[in-house]
Amino acid sequence: MMEAGPLAVFAGTSEGRILCERLAAHGRAARVFTATDYGGELVDDLPGMEVHTGRLDCAGMAAALKGTACVIDATHPFAVEASRTIRSASAACGASYVRLARDGVARQDGARYVASAEEAAAMLREQTGAVLLTTGTNTIDAFATPDLIERVYVRILPVVASLQRALDAGFPPSHIIAMQGPFTQELNAAMLRQIGASWLVTKESGTAGGLEEKVAACRDAAAQAIVIARPREDAGARSLGEVCDLLGV
Prior knowledge:
Blueprint: E1 7-10, H1 14-25, E2 30-34, H2 37-41, E3 49-53, H3 58-64, E4 70-73, H4 80-92, E5 96-99, E6 112-114, H5 117-125, E7 130-133, E8 152-156, H6 160-168, E9 176-178, H7 185-195, E10 197-203, H8 211-220, E11 224-228, H9 240-247
Parallel strand pairs: 1-2, 1-4, 2-3, 4-5, 6-11, 7-8, 7-10, 8-9, 10-11
Helix pairs in contact: 1-9, 3-4, 7-8
């Protein structure tokens, strides 16, 4: 178990929320960093959590982490650049760095796996039919091209920043679904049928990201799932349970 000391958690994910809940339940305080106000709202009701929202560069992050003993990186598995910055900032201020990796799930039968959003978009250009895009706003530019945008419906978080991002990319309001998950298999299938989708694009974001429900919904609605493969985690990454054990919570 790691010795107690000033702790920082980079959260904004379900794993980050659970870790903060465990810390609060054991009377442990932490500074919690999230990139968005929405991420901060996931933890700001927990006692002992000092929440900071907004994106930071490496220098700003290192300054904010000054005096921290341990940094837990519980950011999204696709937030590769954020993790690199957190690791560098932790080293710069002499803090221990621990990567909390989301548990994976087995490859889904019937789904087509690709390496990037751009590869998924290229695949769709060779096909026909409407598309339900569930990868979030960070990847929508790849699908906002003139030859795709009229076929694509984006499902995003119901927050102003996400809605504005989709509108700025050129998606009309009729092609924007702003809803908060988690989504059941049945609800995913109903959405696919409602828009007449032949395709669903998602990230390989594990159980927390609803991957299994999305792929099963595609089978129900006679649609094809395209899954953007998860970036490889570093060998030293730990599970949520392992991080909780490390911190004694």
